[in-house]
Write a structure and sequence with these properties.
Blueprint (H helix, E strand, L loop, with lengths): L2 H12 L1 H38 L1
Length: 54
């Protein structure tokens, strides 16, 4: 391996714990955003149906 690849590997290994934690936070954030959007869409559909019925 070239020295540049070795240096890159060492830098990635040094920051691996921080990067894994960041990826986990982002995954949780996108999951929460997805759930909120899904609830909002369902709420709009239900309210639209109720408005037509009543």
């Amino acid at each position: 391996m070239s020295q540049a690849k070795v240096d890159q590997y060492k830098a990635e290994k040094k920051n691996r714990k921080k990067n894994v934690a960041r990826e986990k936070r982002l995954r949780v954030l996108w999951t929460v955003i997805g759930v909120v959007v899904l609830i909002a869409v369902i709420l709009v559909i239900v309210l639209s149906i109720l408005h037509k019925v009543l």
